[in-house]
Amino acid sequence: MKPSHLALGACSLALYIAGCATISSWRGIEKPTASVRNVRITGLNFEAAQLAYDLVISNPNSVAVTFDGFDYDLQIEKTSLLRGMQTNHITIAKNSQSRITVPVSLGYQQVLDTIQSLRGKDDFSYALLGDVLLDVPLLGTTKIPLSHEGTLPIVRMPTLDIENCAVKSLNLTGAKIDLTVRVHNPNAFALSLANMAYAFDVSGKNWAEGTTAETLALPVKGDGSVTIPINLNFLSVGSSAYAALTGTEPVPYTLQAKADVETSLKDFKRLRLPLQRTGELRWR
Q1: pTM of the entire structure?
Q2: CATH code for the domain in which residue 252 is found
Q3: Taking a C-beta distance cutoff of 8 angstroms, is the pair 194, 164 a contact?
Q4: 3-state secondary structure of 109
Q5: Are residues 197 and 149 in the same domain?
Q6: Strand pairing class (79-86; 123-136)
Q7: Of 153, 188, 219, which marks where a domain is finished?
Q8: How many domains are contained in the chain?
Q9: How far apart are alpha carbons 55 and 98 in whole angstroms?
Q10: Count of CB atoms within 10 A of residue 51's CB?
Q11: Distance between CA atoms of 68 and 65, rounded to whole angstroms?
Q12: Nearest CA to 83 among 67, 104, 101?
């Protein structure tokens, strides 16, 4: 046999052996496994709750597999609220684990509008159902079902109201008024409001603005009040203020406030919360 033929035969034999070795290793391909290792609340405020699902995928094979995405259905009180697909191609090395994070945002208004039975409740149950999509050699596209259940609190905005507006003194040049503002906490957890900046307008005229010094503690589903002293100068605000205080007709008002809010919920981060109340006032 010619040397060239011997070399070609040896090369073919080597390729055949290598191919057999690869096929032999692929014959033992196993279906990877997936689980929800952890669910974290990454953000919580009066508008939404942000969750992060940590998916752990284990590849027991001697060849790499590819994560192609996560097809999920987020259910609230067993009602489907949000369906989605996270597509992100990630290679999972042989004989290894990979953690993939799936972010989910839950808007409270959407939840309450969709699930009417939650009106008046303080929390709700949720479930994340889905399939991890993997591209596995020989097996092709493989789906691994996952599910996780939990409970989240319902976070509602506190409300403002004017509890009392008492005229302490009145003359032709000005007036002294005590404005008592009540804040209601509709939640099943305590709140505190600090550094509350306010602006009080009557009939389109600004009567007072400033910042309260005290911290207002609001118990569970309870109220707290703060009294704001107002010194009116009719030369500054106009004669309409005197007419409003001495007249018999109701006058429109707007009370705006911003306060630093903290709660007893561990995942709730301190934030600056705007509040507003409009209505009518009558002094006589």
Answers
A1: 0.76
A2: 2.60.40.1820
A3: no
A4: helix
A5: no
A6: unpaired
A7: 153
A8: 2
A9: 8
A10: 22
A11: 10
A12: 104
